Amino acid sequence: MLEISKSLSIDERELEERFIRASGPGGQNVNKVSTAVELRFDVGHSPSLPEAVRQRLMRLAGRRLTDEGVLVIRAERFRTQERNREDARARLVDLVRAALPQPKTRIATKPSRAAKARRVDAKVRRGSVKKLRQSRPSFD
């Protein structure tokens, strides 16, 4: 079980891991050893996630989410399979934790009468400053 919070955990069987060759520099080792990890988690059909968390997670995932609703996390930061595997799982946990809290609904507010008056007063004052700046032709 991959523990997300006290009330939410993801079953290991829902995670699919593939080991692939990492890109970038690394000498001969990078061509021989498949150290990078591609972690796949089917967000769209996961029984572990409540519907609200699923929707927020799909929004947060962005381009890491496939058209079928599968979240793909690729970890290739480290030189060993095990550390990359831990990194991918930690990133999945962080992403799901970010989707857990329900965002607060925004309450629309209006400016107070005093705030409106201050705004109009500032506009009038600024306009009078500009008016005084205008050069008037003198008829001498």
Describe the structure.
The structure is a single chain. Strands 3-4-5 form a three-stranded antiparallel sheet, with helices on one face. A two-stranded antiparallel sheet has the order 1-2. The chain starts with a strand and ends in a 7-residue tail after the last helix. Helix content is 40%, strand content 16%. It has four helices and five strands, in the order βββαβαβαα. It is elongated, with a radius of gyration of 28 Å. The chain is of the alpha+beta class. The chain has one domain: Double Stranded RNA Binding Domain (2-Layer Sandwich). The mean pLDDT is 82.
Report a brief summary of the structure.
This protein has 140 residues and is of the alpha+beta class.
Largest sheet: 3 strands, antiparallel
Q: What share of residues are in beta strands?
A: 15-25%
Count the helices. How many?
A: 4
CA-based gyration radius:
28 Å
Biggest β-sheet: strands ordered side by side in the sheet: 3-4-5
Q: What structural class do helix, strand and pairing data support?
A: alpha+beta
Which whole number gives the mean pLDDT? 82
Number of strands: 5
Order of H and E elements: EEEHEHEHH
Overall helicity: 40-55%
Unreliably modeled segments: none
Whole-Å distance between the termini? 93 Å
Shape: elongated
User: Which class in CATH terms?
Assistant: Alpha Beta
Task: Supply the CATH architecture.
Answer: 2-Layer Sandwich
What is the domain tally?
Answer: 1
Q: CATH fold name, please?
A: Double Stranded RNA Binding Domain
